[in-house]
């Protein structure tokens, strides 16, 4: 038997298998079992475990809030992320989660961190604007998605450690190395979801798993180095004045409770925040810019709102002077910008699908019976496009839908606008993310008119756990001011 007939037979068998599976599904559906019978969901099961998918707001409130303790992050998922996430807030349930959540939400609501992050975002945004200005003067197009990924890493590093990583300029060799290891490790962890043999590969330390191990080592050495350095500084100077970055805040906390807050624990906390905050924010700003290119009128309206609320915006030739004018108080007044970002997240939620595992048998509000160990997923991306939730214009980008007649932002139920998750585990960085997204949007929209480099190139997402743009976002920026 030659190689070609072997390949042919292989594909023929595979095709037959798929056909049989589809046939089985059709028989199952048309035998009436799944229609109107809550024991059979429309999409049911996989080979390995049972899962169901929902867009019903009542079901979502039920699993994320009403029965919060009965629906947890499953072992299957935890297993996959543990090597990178450790015992960080993302990768734990129950008491361990509760304790970290309490500590972190306290820190995130402090004035110190709010002001410090605002200042850090402003400085990085000014840096970003200067780079874009240089490119635009040379009349070149560029990948703004890539630039924003660097921008968010720089910003979160500054807020997390008070360290300048300088990924935007790429001047710091260590910084660029860390960024590469960090992005690669993230992607490789997500690969595990579609690679059933990852545990074997890890045990043998081969292929993707050996690369992942190496990347995690690079990350760990870098982060542990920073923690040691900070501990020494804090010990040496032993100042009473408050350090402002997240790591220092937790280190100070650890003086009170040194047994519990170990270096490993600090590493996990910090890394979880970085993973949570970096890609989701960079992706959302990118989708937002894409929407502004597709809807120039919205871009102009935001520009007008900036001029209305930020002094000196009309003649923003000195970038540093201009960003200094951006304060939290002013950001809060900009309802149209807030609505536009929210509208972006409705259509492009950073986490398109998310779910929980049932700890016991249960019945969802729509009548569907869940068995112990089943996964229940909610489909954030699909929900944003459903007319029964958002009206006939569900697929249109329309910031106005979030505003009342006097232009004041009207929030929706978090179980319906689900981009930040909801219930007790709602995104901890929501305000943080809005602050950062607003600052960088204001700077970009005020200084430039942004358009797609190629109107005919299809912009779409890459299939992974977070909603990445496939192939980046190539744009041109025209300076609004001469200077
Ligand atoms: C537009 C940007 C963002 C989006 C769309 C987003 C979305 C989400 C979602 C969907 C979850 C729930 C994940 C799950 O548990 O299944 C989550 C959790 C979380 N997010 Fe965000 N996030 C964003 C930005 C940020 C930022 C900037 C930070 C921090 C600096 C952050 C910190 C967290 C943390 C710590 C959790 C875990 C909360 C917990 O389990 O109690 N996020 N986020
Ligand atoms: C795994 O493999 C890499 C090379 O592929 C090697 O550098 C590393 O030391 C190995 N790690 C362990 C724990 O065996």
TrEMBL record:
Ranges that cross the membrane: 6-27
InterPro entries found in the cross-reference section: Cyt_P450, Cyt_P450_CS, Cyt_P450_E_grp-I, Cyt_P450_sf
Name the UniProt key words of this record, in alphabetical order: Heme, Iron, Membrane, Metal-binding, Monooxygenase, Oxidoreductase, Transmembrane, Transmembrane helix
Q: Does the keyword Cell inner membrane apply?
A: no
Q: Which residues does the annotation say bind heme?
A: 427
Keyword match Aminoacyl-tRNA synthetase: no
Give the GO terms filed under biological process for this record. Answer: lipid metabolic process
Q: Which GO terms describe its molecular function?
A: heme binding; iron ion binding; monooxygenase activity; oxidoreductase activity, acting on paired donors, with incorporation or reduction of molecular oxygen
Needed co-factor(s): heme
Q: Which domain of life is it from?
A: Eukaryota
Database matches in PROSITE patterns: CYTOCHROME_P450
Assigned protein family: Belongs to the cytochrome P450 family.
What's the name of the protein?
Answer: Cytochrome P450 704C1-like
Origin organism is Carnegiea gigantea
Organism lineage string: Eukaryota, Viridiplantae, Streptophyta, Embryophyta, Tracheophyta
